[in-house]
Amino acid sequence: MKKYIVPVLVLLSLVSVSCSSDDDGMSEEKLEGTGEVSLTFDNGFGGNDLVLNTANTANANGEVLTISRFNYIVSNFRLVTKDGEEFTFAKDNSYFIINQEAGEETVELPEIPAGEYTTVKFGIGVDQEKFQQGAEGQGDFLAQAEANNMMWSWQAGYKFLNFEGTFTSETVTEAENFKVHMGSHGSSLDNYKEVSIELPTNIKVSNEMDSNIHLKIDASKILISSTSNIKFSEQAVIMVDEVKSPQIAVNVTEMFTVDHVHNGSGHN
Amino acid sequence: MKIILMMRVLQSIKLFVVVIFLASTTYSFANDIPFKNNPKPCLNYKLGYYDFCDTCGCGSSGGSMGFGTGLNNNFFGLRYISQEYRSRDGIFADSPWITENFNTIQAWGNIPVSKRATINVILPYQFHNRQFVDNTEQTINGLGDISILGMYNLLKKTPDSIISIKPEHYIQLGGGVKMPTGKYDSSNNTGSVNPSFQLGNGSWDYILAINYGFNYRNWGVSTLINYTIKTENPKKYHFGNQFNYGVNIFKSYYISDFSLTPIVGIAGEVYETNKEFNLEVANTKGDIFLGKVSLEASYNKYSLGILGMLPISQNLNSGRVELKNRISVYLNVNL
């Protein structure tokens, strides 16, 4: 018996030492100050990665899209805490362009108050309130939109979605161009839409913690969503269209899902 | 006989003390040493991100391979384990696969401290590498997480002088710790494909284990169940608890001083969801079921073993991670 008393004692003391060492810091930490929330818009098409100028798998209508441009405006970011309070990110700084050809896929929202958030809300496009502020009220965003092919003219307004490329189908065997430019067309037709996405896991923000929301985008929804089914073989250029533009505006709201979040360390 | 036993025991205590000393000194450094091979954050490849089950923990402690050879014996020696995984670099169905190789060399031993009690020690050195889509390679190496278990046999062993024709059963109950002696680098946890690409999981973990088996003539069966309770590491990352099980059947063939023991078995691992800052991390639970073939050759008190494991079914990280194979080679001195 005596032979193994020593090692057993050593083992026991080890266990007890190690037990006490992880007690500190286990208590619910207070979230203080502010942190950054970033959103990654990871563009895909029908579950696969979206690679520009590469043919995608045929959609449900048998149309094969080769996308050459996929840009969209996201705006008016809000975050909902687990207590149901909504934090609105400063409106003037809350307009962003996701641009696949330029590799712009991240939205950074600094100085978000410390807390635990359950839901993210944002708009697609530019709301009437912002547009009514006139060209001067747009700040730098106007020039940014022009540089990213997201403007018609000031009168006609912003393109909320710029989706271009070529397609083939059963009836269209030679690749034909397609062009979807969706926006509000001044103030006559309001295509600005908002989405609210509950996060699969809450995110925490504090002085020590920046967090990331990784969104998975499905561009195939632009044509085929739960509410409408648009065929390029019937109409391949959709710009100022009173019927199809509003349909696309609704379809686009179905593009966004959150794949995962990344707590504490940010993404970059 | 008694004197020899005493000497062995003394030696084992000495070894144990050395291990504890080593462990305590390395631990104090493990989480402070600046990481030499800084992983390149965010290269040009499309950034994907998800967490892994705690396979690094498996590499360092054995996982469903168990803490022994599968034969009911006492030994010390060296074991090499190679594990090949592949994981998706991205969140899409067509995101490219990245190959990851986890390599471990362990000094390990199952050392008797009394007729019924043994101490199991695993002291791992890890060297891992992975190759990204853009052909850049990342390697990390260093001490892994040391684990120490005490096992106690509930059944009395038949004295050697009595030759039994009945099956000889054993039930061992045990417990122990896995110490955070391996470096856990949280920067591997951002902008990289697989944050379990670590030397250790950074936390103090507690292991509960049961081994049951019997030998009958030249035949033997061994089963193992162990459960690792993991705690939050200093970087606020908490790997999910892990349940391992395995069943082995073996038969020994004797040719004078030489013996050959083929072993076949099955094994499985179940990983619970990881947590970060006390919040669940998506796609981190999983399970895997493996088949195992092994051969141990013994000459006098030396044993050379080779072992291969292949997955029969697996669902790790929502299918974003796959084990390709595990191979192990060991050279032991039997006590």
From TrEMBL, chain A:
Under InterPro entries, the record lists: MbnP-like_dom (IPR046863)
Give one Pfam hit by family name.
Answer: MbnP
Query: Per its UniProt entry, which superkingdom is the organism in?
Result: Bacteria
| Keyword field contains Signal | yes
Signal peptide per UniProt: 1-21
- Is Signal there in the keyword field? yes
Copper-binding protein MbnP-like domain boundaries? 34-239
Recite the UniProt keywords alphabetically. Answer: Signal
* Name under which the protein is recorded: Copper-binding protein MbnP-like domain-containing protein
Native source organism of the sequence: Maribacter vaceletii
What is the taxonomic lineage of the source species? Bacteria, Pseudomonadati, Bacteroidota, Flavobacteriia, Flavobacteriales
UniProtKB/TrEMBL annotation, chain B:
- Keywords in alphabetical order: Signal
Query: Which positions carry the signal peptide feature in this UniProt record?
Result: 1-30
Keyword set includes Signal? yes
Superkingdom assignment: Bacteria
Identification of the protein by name: Outer membrane beta-barrel porin/alpha-amylase
Which organism does this record belong to? Maribacter vaceletii
